[in-house]
Design a protein that fits this description.
With 83 residues, the protein is mostly beta strands. The chain has 1 helix and 5 strands. Strands 1, 2, 3, 4 and 5 form a 5-stranded antiparallel beta sheet that branches. The longest helix has 8 residues.
Length: 83
């Protein structure tokens, strides 16, 4: 399942969910570390932006395991500001 479909199933109160890979990402043999930024625009006119680090272990062309690290305090919605 595509990740956006996954989030809309699990976060039905979101108007929009976007993600961005914050570069650089790091590769060492079969280990990969990626910093992701997710932005949730909620239907109640608030926004949540979280940064998440993921540590992946690869076996050939497939991810063998993933561990996600983030600060749960980031999930507090903030008022949406118009640019």
């Amino acid at each position: 399942m595509e990740w956006t479909a996954y989030f809309f199933l699990h976060f039905p109160l979101a108007d929009k969910v976007t993600s961005k890979c914050i570069r650089p990402y790091f590769v060492n043999d079969n280990l990969v570390v990626i910093n992701w930024q997710f932005t949730f625009e909620w239907k109640n006119n608030t926004i949540t932006t979280i940064n998440e680090m993921v540590l992946q272990t690869w076996q050939g062309e497939k991810i063998e395991s993933e561990h996600f690290y983030f600060d749960p305090n980031q999930f507090k919605p903030q008022p949406r500001t118009n640019p």
